[in-house]
Amino acid sequence: MKKKTCGKGKLRTSDAGLCMRSAGSRCEHRCGKDRDPVCGTDGRTYLNRCMLQVEICRVGIQMSHLGPCNNISAHRENCPVSCEQAPIDGPICGSDGNVYKNTCQMKLLTCGQGVVRTSKKYCQTTRHCRESCWRVAKPTCGSDGKIYSNACRMKSKNCGKHVFEVPMSFCVSHERNANGNGCPLNCEGEDESLTCGSDGNVYRNECELKMLNCGAQSSKRRVQPVDFEKCRTKLNKCNKLQKCFKEVDPVCGTDSHTYINKCQLQIATCLKGIQLAHVGNCTALEENDFCPNSCPEDEDAPVCGSDGNVYRSLCEMRKETCGQKVVAVPSHHCRTTAQCNEVCGTERQFICGSDNKFYRNECEMKRDNCGKHIFVVPMKRCLTGFMFRGCQKICENYYDPICGTDGKTYSNDCFLDLENCRSRSLVSKKHHGQCGQPVTEAKNYLY
User: Between 3.20.20.140, 3.40.50.300, 3.30.60.30, 3.30.1460.30, what CATH number should domain 192-281 receive?
Assistant: First the structure.
């Protein structure tokens, strides 16, 4: 162990359970045949995450990214010049977590990054695209100013778009013959005066009750203010729910109120059933977005949007999402910007990135390529340009034991080849697995 991890500061642990193999696992997970391909750090595509988990347990590799491996070198990837005549086969969820209008746009915007198509369930604005909605009649007002039969129908009909639930008063004020009087769009400037509603929920003031009642035609559906003692038990229960820290990571509720963090929103959910509309600050619903027609080509400051997509700049985000009320949110909410501000350790676990460059560890690779889809690939991709003399071969640090004809167990076939070179072809492969414990060679990957 000391020989293999020289200079890495690795120590022996007293907890044997930290290693799957030493815990007695035979790495024999029962996997279904669902087709949801994922790419491993060994450069192989696995049918689904369960089959990759078998290899993670058996060999010690990791998941590189969602979707099949794209083993074409970044420098040799064919990229389209224009997408004007391209078929509209989208929206498409990319392995970088972004949603694209079609395959051509995905290849054009991510040229050289090896982004591939993945299941729609992995992207924020496409995960509800094929959802089967129950026939529940709970009218919902969308941020596009339209009324939907329920929230599920609203999301499925706006596949690939950032449309979220807002107070009904916003949609009622858009209707031609509707009387918008008495229907406030928000209650931000109102004083806090806790009000108990006849539905058993606790509201911040009577303004919130008016927002709730907006659009309710019959008096039976209207919520009236009642004696607060009827809500006292609920208020005490929700206040005891959890102590919220003052960490600032704003989220927008379906009442168009910005909560300081998700914890504060959970209390509002308990008190009055408010749900998450989207991450980030709420926008003024009546204001028209400023939509630029073009953006500077040299501007490159990746922005994470509340729709889950990463944009080249703030200008690019406003241009691409015109009218969808997308706001900039902290970088950790998007896949390719999650580690932009990460403080990386100094440990040396050299890896090869999909840009064919060496990095000290995975954290540094993600941090140095903020906003780009760079992932771990087999070490041989980076070693292609190096020339080794004699038997000075560099082997990857994964454990897939091979028993040699000399009776010794080698970590993987690369180390066996190294010994074979040094001994001048005296040692060859006896069987797969540790000496004395032969196993059938596993093959859980597609290609």
Answer: 3.30.60.30
